[in-house]
Amino acid sequence: MKKIALLLALVMVFALAAVPANAAGEKLVLGTSADYPPFEFQYPNDKGDLVYAGVDISVAQYIAEKTGKELQIENMGFDYLLASLQKGDFDMVLAAMESSEDRLKAADFSDPYYTDIPAKVLVRAADVDKYTGFDSFGGKYVGAQTATTKETIVQEILTGAELVSIQTVPDLVNQLVNNKLDAVVLDGAVAVEYAEKNKDLAVADIEFEVAEPYRVAVAKGDPKNLLPGINEAIAEMLKEDKIPEFYAQAKNLEGSAVLPE
Predict the structure, then answer these.
(1) Exposure class string for 133-143: b at 16+ Cβ within 10 A, else e
(2) For the segment 3-30, what is each residue's pLDDT rounded down to a tens digit?
(3) Cα(148)–Cα(56) distance, rounded to whole angstroms?
(4) Would you say domain 120-203 falls under CATH 3.40.30.10?
(5) Domain spans of the chain?
(6) N or C: which end of the chain has fewer CB within 10 A?
(7) Residue 122 in contact with residue 183, Cβ under 8 Å?
(8) 245, 243, 246, 244: which is closest to 235 by C-alpha?
(9) 0.90 cut: is pTM over it?
């Protein structure tokens, strides 16, 4: 009987070992802030319902499929994402997010999956010639999304600028269009998208250093042991060169995204 019990125990151990660490549960809950085309945004489908799209959404869907999960998306302000992740509201966060010293205190991060062009400064087209260097922003009100690395750029690089932190990117851009801000710092591709879609906006001819790569965030300590599966999926996704495909899909759809006029 002892031998039988031992054999059964060994069978159970090997059976458990054969199950991927992140296979428990059917849902993979994504936290994001869907106001940041082409990386995450919402657009109306044929029925008029708002659905999610963007590079990060496609990456999350790829990860979900590779780990055998059904993706569930939760949308909220960017500055609340990591706090909600710590509380267990999400399994992971994708929101064009870089790791940083402060963020590493609150979350663990995956291997990189994408590196954007460096940050850009979005200004009104009529004023674009005024901004020729970092010292052109003295006394100017420069916006950045709350809790992003763009706040640091305004405070530490744009000499003399007054930082205005606002929760959502559409609100930032609206404030710029309506002359309540002088400039807005955004991830490069996002700034270019807004400038392309609004003739009254332009990207200032100012170059920042190379951007930090985007990563997937999970709860600190990875209590659900998600990172191994996420990193494996990222490695396979990059090997298959999926990011250009996801980017093209996002570009095709973002024309229907809700953007400020």
Answers:
(1) ebebbeebbbb
(2) 333 333 333 333 333 334 444 458 999 9
(3) 17
(4) no
(5) 22-115+213-256, 120-203
(6) N
(7) yes
(8) 243
(9) no
